[in-house]
Amino acid sequence: MSSNKKTLPFSALATNPILTGAAILALAGFASRIIGFFYRIFLSQQIGAEGMGVYQLIFPVFSVCFSLCCGPVQTAISRYVAAQNQSPKHRFSSVPSEKLYPLPSDSPEAVLQAGLFLSFSLACLCAVIVYAGSDMIAEHILMEERCGNLLRLMALTIPICSIHCCISGYYYGLQKAYIPALAQLAEQIIRVTSVYGICLSLTGSGQHPTAATAVWGMICGELASLVFTAISYFCHQSCQAFRPKQRQNPGQAFHHPQENSHGFSCHSPHYLPQLLSLALPLSATRLCISLLQSGEAVMIPSRLQLYGMSSTQSLSVYGVLTGMAYPFILFPSAVIQSMAVMLLPDMAHSQSIGNQERIDINTTRTVTISLYLGILCTGLFLFYGDTMGEALFSNTLAGSYIVTLSWLCPFLYLSTTLGSILNGLGQTRATFWHSILSLLAQLCFVLFLVPVIGIRGYLYGLLFGQLCLTILHLRSTRRLVHIHYQVIHHLLRPMGTLGLSAFISKKITEVLLTPMISHSIIRLGISCALLAGIYGCLLLASRNHL
């Protein structure tokens, strides 16, 4: 950053739990996204652009269910376990409901058990509602009858997802990111291999794969993640049981739980009100966001029809955008999302013990990384987006969308980081209203611009909405955290470095790669790696310190 003395030396990065955990999650995220990238290419070839559009339509419903019963409880478990992981003197000081719900000293397992009960109960209720009302939801809300069977299959994944999300939140709170990371990788591998096997079986019997094939892959992947996290948890508990009991340190955060004969903590029910106090605002935020996103997703095909497209054309355009181009833009965000996951419990812990210096340093560092990565990805997608669409998807429309969405990267990655920081500091109400305002802005673009200029209206809405969200998050963050920011160091230097890197890599590609390598995908990969490598080397060479 600047020459401020509060900046940690570079040698401290290796032991920083946020960066260590983020690195583990990022590696697993990149691996799973690389697998998922080729999976999407394979899936689009098997079920077509229209099939991809039908498949993508069920995800708003899944997102609503996830917002009600999985994501908020996972975050609450993570933040609660992290806030307790300190001396009893400071325990629960960051929880606003402390006076209403005095809690006993207990183990993190009690928090997990309470979260599992809460999340799984809600998940089963959601699954029953979606399964029973699948045809009504498909016909009257999604406006696509073919989604009915897909929704019934998707409903089976909701209770499964709730269990492994809670276990993952428990490990995030303990800053042990390797279990969720490996579970994510296992889920992706099993999903892809199962879909590949089903497609081979169908084509071998003369049938054509449909969107239902992809949903069966979802079920298999969620089951794999559940089995992995459950086995890891029980193995960890078994190892703890066989360890010799040591004398309890008075300053230790957690004490051995009082358990009944079934191995469940008798204090688990006491955590339900506290988990609800943290999960409800997050649930309201995610639910409103999911509903707005669902309405937006459902409206896009119908607004495209007002623009003059047929039903098949509108679904195909929607499938190309949401199934090919937009996931490609999100591909590098594995690093940012991994940092965001690890930031939230760390911020909760630092705030609860009053360590403002740690909050300032970690916020500055992660904001810097988000900006640097966002600027790099903008350059990659801007210079090579057209080639990516043609070489990877055999679709010029996908390439055009990638180029347009390239400007989204800095704002998307920065808003993800800032949102996690605000949630970690307990500012869930602020993130709620910021997200609602940005989505309402996007929805206005869908309502009024898409019928006039087509899908470009939605793309412009995405850019405007993310810009608004980033500005609002940054404004709120700066009220709580002192970010050591310099325009030259954090903005102008990476932008200038990107321009120079693009020029050098383009010349090397024209002079060396094009005559030597004829395969377009290999040449594209080397060109992107070359640009990223030159960009990173030039940034490191010109930096004072991170």
Describe the structure.
The chain is mainly alpha-helical and 546 residues long. Among the domains are: 325-485, no CATH class; 487-546. It has 20 helices and no strands. α1 runs antiparallel to α11, α2 runs antiparallel to α10 and α15 (409-424) runs parallel beside α18. The relative contact order is 0.12.
Q: What is the mean pLDDT?
A: 79
Q: What spatial form do the alpha-carbon principal axes imply?
A: globular
Strand segment count: 0
Helix content: over 70%
Name the structural class: mainly alpha
The largest sheet is: none
User: What is the terminal-to-terminal distance?
Assistant: 5 Å
Helices and strands, in order, run as HHHHHHHHHHHHHHHHHHHH
How many helices? The count is 20
Radius of gyration: 24 Å
Report strand %. under 5%
Q: List unreliable stretches of 5+ residues.
A: 1-15, 86-105, 246-264
Report a brief summary of the structure:
With 546 residues, the chain is mainly alpha-helical.
List the helices and strands and how they pair.
Blueprint: H1 17-57, H2 59-69, H3 71-84, H4 108-132, H5 134-141, H6 147-155, H7 157-173, H8 178-204, H9 211-242, H10 272-307, H11 311-330, H12 334-352, H13 356-393, H14 396-405, H15 409-424, H16 428-448, H17 450-453, H18 455-480, H19 487-516, H20 520-542
Helix pairs in contact: 1-8, 1-9, 1-11, 1-12, 2-4, 2-10, 3-4, 3-7, 3-10, 3-12, 4-6, 4-7, 5-6, 6-9, 7-9, 8-9, 10-11, 10-16, 11-14, 12-13, 12-15, 13-14, 13-15, 13-19, 13-20, 15-18, 16-18, 19-20
